[in-house]
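Record ABC transporter substrate-binding protein, 322 aa.
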Amino acid sequence: MNRMTTGKLVGVLMASIAALCPTFAISAEPYPSRPIRIVVGTAPGGATDITTRLVAQKMSERLGQPIVVENRPGGDTMVATRYVRDQPADGYTILAQSLGFLTLPYTKKEPGYTIKDFSGIGPMTRAPFLMLVGAGGPRSLKEYVAKASAGDLSYGHGGIASAPHIAAESVLRAYGANVLPVPYKGNGAAMTDVMAGRVSMFFDAYISSSGYVKSGKMRALAVTSAQRLAAAPDIPTFKEQGLDYTFSVWLGLLAKSGTPKDVMNRLSDALKYALTDKALVQRFQADGAEPYILSPEAFDERLAAEFSSLEKVAADLKFVKE
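=>
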């Protein structure tokens, strides 16, 4: 009579369970066991795309798996957001986003997602805006405010409820200036008209406008950071000029809600590893940004608070849902 030892019996049972339930075997695999995708809702070459690629490279080192950055532009980033929402909550398909993730539910009748569909892994960077005028425009913020108060000025922005729109309106309202907003399809188009003098000013990121400032085609009147930028120490803050106003735009990573906590922690750890890399920090600072490190829990709290505050902004600026 053949006897089966306890060890052999356990082995046979485990093999049977794995054969009958393949997901059992898969779930036991350490994360990550295959390549990860980060989906970007903009075309290659923009700030979100470039930042994500730089961060993904360093995160890959930490996680020991390739990270592929996949661009899915369209629908004001809604195409990418909806796509990630429809993927499994396993940490293998994550989303790169920015402030627009929070504003779109206030401007679209059917954005196709809610912020509760996602959980924050963490921000990557935050960056302020410059207030910019053409070469022939006012030479100081004080001069601009005086001209704006007299009326008959217009300003450009890259779209209703975009971060530059919100920043510009916040400043103009603080000064009580009535300046006509002119929406464009992207800040690049607005920049062209600012340089040509067709609109009086716009708000833009340092990374995309600094070249024109250095060449003399535009002038920066103020920066929305709390301190002057290391990359542009000659540009004064709004605070220095008497207005207690700061504003920054974050770029961050999100996962589908329901992603296991241990997976979120692994991704958060890899993100922190990337954001503390000396060379990467120097690259961000040269582009007028700074690494922004938050835990998944703290990032979720920030997203919720910012989304709530945007309700008043939407009402004040009379956002109309399309």
